[in-house]
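Hello support,

Our group uses your service weekly, and this is the first time we've seen a run hang past the timeout. The protein is DNA-binding transcriptional regulator, HxlR family. I'm not sure whether the cause is the sequence or the server load. Input pasted verbatim:
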Amino acid sequence: MKSTAITLTPGCPVRTTMEMLGGKWRLLILHQLAAGPLRFGALRRLVPDISEKVLVHELRHLADSGLVLRTNHGEVPPRVEYHLTDLGRLALPVLAAVGEFGQAYVAQARLPRGSEESSQALDQQASLR
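Update from on-call engineer: The timeout came from a worker crash unrelated to the input. Re-ran successfully.
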């Protein structure tokens, strides 16, 4: 099989998507926000193992990218909520595809490589789409 080189220019849609959604935490944050607005503390509890500093950084990146809206209610004590924008909702099918891939990968990884069962598991996952 011949492989064709892909040039990733600054305007490349794949590169842009990876810059917006790449990293260890961004898709997990978007997944939590898909159900509705959340405050910082709730996000901190729902996204396991993320430090406060990293969560602040990732939320700022997602907000600057236009995927998440940060709403400060101007109350004391401060009440800030985060929710997906319409642009952020456009990323949800990407999140769903990543989840499907993860499920297929886990199912495949449990089987010996190259086995008949391994091929059947991949065919079954592909037919579910």
